[in-house]
Amino acid sequence: MEKLFRQGDIVLVQLPEGSAVTGRHLGVVLQDSPKMVHIILLRRVQPGRLQRPGFAVVFQGDELPYPIEIAYNNHFTIRKEDVLAKKGRLHSSSLYQFAKEYTYHLFPFLRDEVIQRLERAITNFETLLVKNSDEIESVFHKFLHKNPILLDPVGFVHNKPSFKYPVGKTSRTGKGELEPDFIVSYSTQHYRLIEIERPNKNFSTGQGQQRATVTQAAYQLTEWKHFLDHHASEVEATFPGISDKANRSFSLIIGRTHDLGPYASFDDLRSSLKEANNCDVLSYDDLLQRAKDYYENLKAI
User: What are the residue ranges of helices labelled H in the chain?
Assistant: First the structure.
């Protein structure tokens, strides 16, 4: 039976004599074909030595008990018979990063373009948050639609995709159609559904209770999840693989960090949504900081 591998599989390989590197090594699959497989080498690193010259971002394999580094300068196309065993798989979030970093390593001009776009978007986003944080939600939706790199620097961002129920079916609240603000799709067939609220929407009341609008936003995420759990076939043509719960996650972007109210309440919401819906809760300041961090990481490659 022919061996089949997916991008992100961690494999043990025997590199043949005559290669720049020989012997048994761990590698991560980049591309599979009927007779050959393209891999990039992994190397085990000790705690405290996770960043070294010649290596990029550090990852943790799902089934590996130790940290690993991806050596982007060591990649090989080998025969299928030289793959000795599958040892695990990169964590899904690491897999997205792996694909991005590899692309930027091979094509530095793409990295430079992303750096320039990120720099402009970050500057404009900061200005918008300082001068217009009281604007209605649609202003920020329009800005993020024009600057999707702030939501994700590599995934394809779908603006207001439609989730239409089958004839005769509706949501629990009687809706025949749902509309996430954004869906980010990745080449690995993973999807991140995003709900945004306006930045000046406070998370809690003066007494520390969650506002009804926050509860409503969280419920919208639950409606999307319920639709995908029961009617994903309606959107599979546009989002292949979204029916698999492992292939989707959620994000709620709401408020400013300094207006979120008691940290314990916000932390409770984050924890409950993460556990129930695999949902990350971010403030607009969190979103901005993520973009800045990614910008600095790209410049450091």
Answer: 92-106, 108-131, 137-146, 212-231, 263-277, 284-300
What the block records as the tokens of 36 is 């050959």
Global confidence as pTM: 0.67
For residue 86, is pLDDT > 80? yes
Phi, psi of 212 (to 5 degrees): -60, -35
Other CB atoms within 10 Å distance of the CB of residue 233 = 11
Task: Give the residue from 89, 72, 67, 66 showing the smallest Cα distance to 38.
Answer: 72
Q: 260 or 289: which carries more pLDDT confidence?
A: 289
Q: What percent of the chain shows pLDDT beyond 90?
A: 30
Which residues 6+ apart lie within 8 Å of 250 measured at CB? 192, 193, 194, 195, 221, 224, 225, 273, 277, 278, 279, 280
Contacts of 129 (CB under 8 A, 6+ apart): 199, 256, 284, 285, 288
d(CA 281, CA 10): 30
Structure tokens at 90: 């990169």
240: which 2 tokens? Answer: 């292949």
SS3 209: coil
Cα–Cα dist 155/192, whole Å: 9
Q: Which residue has the higher pLDDT, 21 or 196?
A: 196
Residue that is written with structure tokens 């620097």 in the block: 153
Radius of gyration of the chain (CA): 22
Amino acid at 207: Q
The residue ranking higher by pLDDT, 274 or 225, is 225
8 backbone φψ class: left, alpha, beta (φ>0; ψ -120 to 50):
left
Sheet containing strand 156-159, edge to edge, reads: 156-159, 182-185, 191-196, 248-253, 279-282
For residue 85, how far is the Cα from the chain centroid?
28
> In whole angstroms, what is the distance from residue 60 CA to residue 241 CA?
24
Within 10 angstroms of residue 177's Cβ, the number of other Cβ atoms is 11
